[in-house]
Design brief:
heterodimer, A: alpha+beta, Ubiquitin-like (UB roll), DNA polymerase, domain 1, 2 domains, 5 helices, 32% helix, 16% strand, B: alpha+beta, Uridine Diphospho-n-acetylenolpyruvylglucosamine Reductase, domain 2, Enolase-like, domain 1, five-stranded antiparallel β-sheet, 12 helices, globular
Chain lengths: 157, 292
């Protein structure tokens, strides 16, 4: 069996090191090694977006990244968003707009929305819908999610 | 998933020798959006993944109107369409880079990986073909060879790459005067799907923009490999732009398509789509020249 890989990386602004098997995805490392269980496993093949995280400033599916690839990189996950006493404005907007039901897709949607607003603070509804096309929700019908992102854009910009 | 080894290569020479050592049990890893899924689902078994994302040669993204585009095989889609000059020069390639998967896929997936995966339905391959892209391949003995994009795929999932060879980059010639390109596909949804049929076209028009000097047409998902419709393309040279000439090309493209029926569509539907999409790709490229 190939040796475990030693990885030094930055997660939510903090230096982190871990050992992982080369075959472990970043999603598995986050959930099973680091116990950061915010990113969810939905399809495990890049279709659903429930595992979305921001890697070196770009939105990616953590199920399609190897944990071993994180050496020297910088990762943002849902766990890094809220302050101890205050939710992130996107999280507030999701609550205010009732943009979730079962909640499994929510961390992925919020990370995807953050990646969008980081680079485009005032997206159109069309831009929001296309940007979020890789995130699936089987409860809400998407309208409330889109409205939450529009609200968050107004609050943050 | 079977255990495998992960090795980030530091140089092209190291990458090709790491690949050559393991033969078909080793694969280069770029964005991983196809490879990681294939290995996880046991459709592909590997002893070694060689990460080729940190090499300067596979990350090059450099455009000049005189020499054209040099595109590293590992450059993710989002970096390509974020570049205004490249988007203006090669709109057909951008059409494809923007519709592969969703945002998170485009953050990782590369044009080089899309080509090496060699799906007949790959969206970026028809644009590479119509833009005259040349694939630069490094061999394990330090050699380099060049293969035109239309010759790279040999069967579904199969390419010209020999043991230890690595696709390093593409060279795409500068767009000629009065030229443009276009790619579109048919899918039953608005986004996040695989082409039922795809069509790419590039055209060079005369100065009056009323006649076609030359054209290139390429089709996806209607043959075992992405198809370069060479004779159909050549038949447009010197033709006046008219419904008649465009329709004739669309019909000729239908005649060379050999689609199968599968879960995405029937052969009959695909043959119909080849006509519609060839027409739209040609008209789309022509329109872009006229608007420039």
């Amino acid at each position: 069996m190939p040796k475990k890989v030693h990885v030094q990386t930055t997660i939510n602004g903090e230096a982190v090191e871990y050992l992982c098997e080369p075959r472990q995805s970043l999603l598995e490392v986050l959930r099973d090694v680091l116990h950061l269980t915010g990113a969810k496993e939905g399809c495990n093949n890049g279709n659903c977006g429930a595992c979305s995280v921001i890697l070196d400033g770009r939105l990616v599916n953590s199920c399609l990244v190897l944990g071993a690839e994180l050496e020297g990189k910088s990762l943002e996950t849902i766990e890094g968003l809220a302050e101890p006493e205050q939710l992130h404005p996107i999280q507030d907007a999701f609550l205010e707009n009732a943009a979730l039901q079962c909640g499994i897709c929510t961390p992925g949607f919020i990370m995807a929305a953050k990646a969008l607003l980081d680079q485009n603070p005032n997206p159109t509804e069309h831009e929001i819908r296309y940007w979020l096309a890789g995130n699936l929700c089987r409860c809400t019908g998407y309208d409330k999610i889109v409205r939450a992102v529009q609200d968050a854009a107004q609050t943050t910009s | 998933m079977r255990a495998f080894e992960y090795v980030p290569a530091k140089t092209v020479a190291e990458a090709t020798s790491l690949l050559a050592e393991k033969g078909d049990q080793a694969k280069p890893l770029a964005g991983g959006t196809d490879l990681i899924v294939m290995v996880r689902e046991n459709r592909r078994q590997l002893d070694r993944m060689v990460d080729i994302k940190d090499l300067p040669e596979t990350n090059v993204l450099s455009y000049s109107p005189d020499t054209g585009l040099e595109l590293g095989a590992a450059v993710p889609c989002h970096e390509i369409y974020a570049d205004g000059a490249i988007s203006a020069a090669y709109p057909g390639l951008i059409d494809a880079a923007k519709i592969i998967g969703g945002t998170a896929i485009q953050g990782r997936a590369s044009v080089g990986g899309n080509l090496c995966n060699a799906s007949p339905a790959a969206d970026t391959i028809p644009p590479l073909i119509v833009l005259g892209a040349i694939c630069v391949i490094a061999g394990p003995d330090g050699s380099t060879r060049e293969v035109p994009a239309e010759q790279f795929c040999t069967a579904p999932g199969q390419t010209v790459l020999e043991n230890g060879e690595l696709l390093v980059s593409f060279k795409i010639p500068p767009p000629p005067k009065n030229s443009s390109s276009f790619y579109l596909r048919f899918i039953p949804r608005n986004e996040m799907d695989i082409a039922v049929v795809g069509a790419g076209a590039s055209v060079v028009l005369d100065d009056a923009k009323t006649s076609i000097v030359s054209a290139r047409i390429s089709l996806a998902a209607v043959a075992p490999t992405p198809l370069f419709a060479e004779e159909v393309s050549d038949s447009l040279a010197g033709k006046e732009i008219s419904d008649e000439s465009i329709n004739a090309a669309a019909e000729a493209a239908q005649a060379i398509a050999s689609p199968i029926s599968d879960m995405r569509g029937t052969a009959e539907q695909r043959t119909h789509l080849v006509g519609v999409l060839t027409r739209r790709a040609l008209n789309g490229a022509i329109q872009r020249v006229k608007e420039a």
